[in-house]
Amino acid sequence: MKLLTSNFLKCSVKACDSSNDNFPLRYDANCQLQQDESIDCNPEFLINILQRVDWNALVQVALDLGNNSLPPQKPELSPGDDLTDDDLAIIRDMHSLLIQTSIVEGQMSCRNCGHVYYIKNGIPNLLLPPHLA
Amino acid sequence: MLPTPYIKCDYETVYEPCEDSFLVLDCLEQEQSFLQTRFKHQLAIVCELGPGSGIVTTFLMQNDIPNNEGSVYLALDISPWALEATQNTQKRNGCQNRYLSVIQSDLSKCLRRNSTDLLVFNPPYVPAEQVPERPSHEDDKGQWLDLALLGGEDGMVVTQEVLNQLDTILSQEGVAYILFCARNKPEQVAEKMKQQGWSVDLIINRKAGWEVLSIYRFTRS
Fold first, then answer.
1. pTM of the full predicted structure?
2. A93–chain B Cβ distance below 8 A for any pair
3. Which SUPFAM superfamilies match (chain A) (predicted)?
4. In chain B, N or C: fewer CB atoms in 10 Å?
5. In the predicted structure, residue A69 carries a pLDDT above the cut 90
6. Do B83 and A4 touch (CB under 8 A)?
7. What ipTM score was computed for the predicted complex, to two decimals?
């Protein structure tokens, strides 16, 4: 699963919906990552993504995985902007992290209830065991 | 006519695209300009629940639906077979460069609140005594297939669960397309959703063998 997907996944446990800690999930530092350099950077797509992401959650997940390259505040970029070199550097970092990086194997857990979910063959499994479903 | 994805799957484990699947494709084709206008200059988060073979999500990716801003596609299925099939269908149709994540999940339970702009759901709509239990082994092939078909009482148990969650699934401008068969009593369902403040429109319907299928569009009014 590409790292950006972490921005859309919360804990499946219903009782956690009333907590603010069910999103993002906490990613295990031992997650096995893969970098796919063959995916080209599309600055426009990344700028569009920026409008939609929960930035704090991204920063948090990146930190979980040992990457502290993201600025603490969401970069202010809009579609159609003239991009400075600094902007392009941020976009390249984001591309490398959000699109080129995937988690192949590993686990993640809910910050509220602690339930552990697994990622296998790049596919996250958010199903709950019957007693929690 | 927009191109239809080429599909080659093991139909012992995933639902073979049928009249209902093709009705979803026709519906989305018909809605293309509505969706383009609604999500103008905006990246959309697209989520399909129960993609099965992956025909619908691949069709969306292939034809830039809802728009050409490069959407994020999420395909959520309870069956590991369906997720594998969806990934294969994506590749087979040359959509590797699109952002697609397949996620094993019980409906939308794992989705971040109010993040989905376009939801598509072709549910297990066949009336049955009950919704089958999730198989305990990946190899119980036929049981996974049953999950894709059987919808419990009135065939509405699974669909109703999604309707109940619609308000937390969809973004403010979010749109959902959900398929019904006549035995689901879709007019009654639509009426009830309207009372709860939703705009509900019948987009397309068709007689398919002995079934009458219809797709309704849900938006906040």
1. 0.96
2. no
3. Trm112p-like
4. N
5. no
6. no
7. 0.95
